[in-house]
């Protein structure tokens, strides 16, 4: 196995997982918000809630489909590029992925059709229940994926049998304290992503002076949710830092940009790490703060990268900078959410076009924060695939050649780019069309093998009539 094939396989997996994670991080939060919207519609009877729900349901459906398509490739890569990992970790990772299918996919497949086509056929309470079940399904999917990844980060509850990781204690695997720190962190990231996408869309409509009532609902709910969730995310982010500090000290040292032991340790705000010289250039640091963050102590000794052999260190530059980009995005989002929430409370936000523009332009930030957070976690784990017990170089398919890896990488990049361009284009068209328009409710006699039975001119009724009637 040559290094080029290994590098190409790593690039391929990084590209596909980075592309895929964009969509679940959006749809998980959006599904939860759709549940809130439907509940508000039933509670208040406001037509605007129904319009906003139907509008975002279309976008959710497109993004959900893109996430499913882009995620299918992930499982195949374990067999094609990482067969040693698949063989050794299959007794643990296989059941975890199967549980995702039996729980998350089952709920999503069972109730998503009701969301799309079942409103006129089921009672309003059952439609709300179906929306909640889809949201629960997306949440369970995130849980099983995080359970899988957290086991790779901190492997527990296993024994070695015939050269493979065999589960010894499923309770340790599923109740690993690392999982129950990382899962809420990812879930909150998804909720924040959905909140800022919704708020940015509302700000865009207000800037264009369109769909005023619906735009205010989007902006208000998105900003309020963001203002509440971002401080909670900071708390779970700190807990994530604690687990890295305790279980992966070399990753923690790389994130901190700390090359040598320090007591007390300074916190490096900015620097340009130089791995060859094992030092930082242009460093800006705050004394003592590193010990306080790492150990909640003013005098603790914090280890540096030189305590570990060079072959056991991650590539320092990537986790060092991606972590700071993630934190920077969080700070900007917090400023936008808190300022916007204050102006919304004071009924002055529509007169503050600068804040509307800031909200609109902030929609990429949660995606960037999610991606850079994953880069920090995954690149910082190197050179291990299963931390401490299976190196990445040993996990790749032994007979994989560089030309084969390059071919699959190029094909995946081309196909994913095609999917992304047309998916984004279609979502953009939905956003430009906006939430207003006539709701088409298929007649109860419509059946899947007679799609034209949906077309009935008598069913084209202004949405307010349906909403007021509680349909």
Helices and strands in order:
Blueprint: H1 3-44, H2 47-80, H3 83-117, H4 124-153, E1 158-161, E2 164-167, H5 170-174, H6 179-207, H7 212-247, H8 249-256, E3 267-274, E4 279-286, H9 289-295, H10 317-345, H11 353-361, H12 364-381, E5 384-386, E6 390-391, H13 392-395, H14 402-433, E7 439-440, E8 460-461, H15 463-468
Antiparallel strand pairs: 1-2, 3-4, 5-6, 7-8
Helix pairs in contact: 1-2, 1-4, 1-6, 1-12, 1-14, 2-3, 2-7, 2-14, 3-4, 4-6, 6-7, 6-11, 6-12, 7-8, 7-10, 8-10, 8-12, 10-11, 10-12
Structure description:
With 471 residues, this protein is mainly alpha-helical. The chain contains 15 helices and eight strands. It has a two-stranded antiparallel ribbon with strand order 1-2. It has a two-stranded antiparallel ribbon with strand order 3-4. Strands 5-6 form a two-stranded antiparallel sheet. A hairpin with a 4-residue loop joins strand 3 and strand 4. Helix 4 packs across helix 6 and helix 7 packs across helix 8. The longest helix is centred in the N-terminal third of the chain and has 42 residues. The chain is globular and about 65 Å long. It starts with a helix and ends with a helix. The C terminus is likely disordered.
Number of helices: 15
Low-confidence sequence ranges: 438-448, 450-471
**What is the general shape?**
globular
Strand content: 5-15%
What profile does the largest beta sheet have? Answer: 2 strands, antiparallel
Secondary-structure element series: HHHHEEHHHHEEHHHHEEHHEEH
Query: If strands are numbered along the chain, what order do they take across the biggest sheet?
Result: 1-2
Radius of gyration from CA coordinates: 24 Å
Our measurement of the CA-to-CA distance between the termini, rounded to an integer number of angstroms, reads 62 Å
Mean pLDDT: 88
Report the count of strand segments: 8
Helix content: 55-70%
Given helix and strand content, the structural type is mainly alpha
